[in-house]
Protein: alcohol dehydrogenase
Amino acid sequence: MRAWTVDRPRPVEEDPLRLAERSVPVPADDELLVRVRACGVCRTDLHVTEGDLPVRRPGVVPGHEVVGTVAGTGSAVTGFAPGDRVGVAWLRWTDGTCAHCRRGAENLCPGSRYTGWDADGGYATHTTVPAAFAHRLPEDVDDVALAPLLCAGIIGYRALRRTGLPPGGRLGLYGFGGSAHLCAQVALAEGAVVHVLTRGADARRLALGLGATSASDAYAAPPEPLDGAILFAPVGDLVPVALRALDRGGVLALAGIHLSDVPPLRYETDLFYEKELRSVTANTRQDAREFLALAARYGVRATTHPYPLSRAPQALRDLKAGRFDGAAVLVDDLS
Ligand SMILES: [Zn+2]
Ligand SMILES: [Zn+2]
Structure:
């Protein structure tokens, strides 16, 4: 099989990825062998490849938005058969025994492991996944359109639920990239009034086209107070801006894995009247199941930009430089 491996993490302009010839992995007893058909390119892949995240597996194969078919099963696997279409996402394993796992918060498990960081992911023709962490996928959506749902979509969905938005509530989205444009589709389908606050003119056009009520600059005040808001932009300066835009009792969820420093908050304007600030950390398998089911029901679609798998390094360079709208997806041309 062929796989892109992170040779030594460094800026993508210095070609850290190497195309390797490897033997097809043998799935462990509880794992599936997956033939990769499409793999989304997530910003976290850039963090793994450039070394913003510490090395957890030398020579790792990045990629955690995998759509593929089962090509083999370990001896203890039940419920999956060769040919089944499955998704492989970021959350790869949790211990199931710690206090967080036992209360349904496996996203906080200190022992959790991740695809494309702790274990080889989907920038390859084949990969493996523990069967308990593989996702069944809706049937009527093509591989490329599904791939970005497996990270960007699931995280945006968890962030939306973290706002506790009431039915018909007013939602503010700060930043409007891959995750936000999927989250907006769920919120709109559920009857929310969506206001998008972002810098980019193209993103504002996309937001209005999807059905947002308004789209303005990130630092502008929305046209009405918000019941909930999600900060997708990794900009801490926007935290007090978004808190001030909330109505009494409103909730701000911080969706990013990275955020620049948050400036001092003023209790009176930013937090009083029971405004709440919540972070979002990864996701549970339950989040993924709920989101994939709703995405199928609501017809949630990612705006995609396909690349052949052989051009994975170019996809990462283009992502870093912001050269495309929507989500890049690698499609196998190396088998
Ligand atoms: Zn745990
Ligand atoms: Zn991701």
The chain has two domains: 2-141+301-331, 154-279.
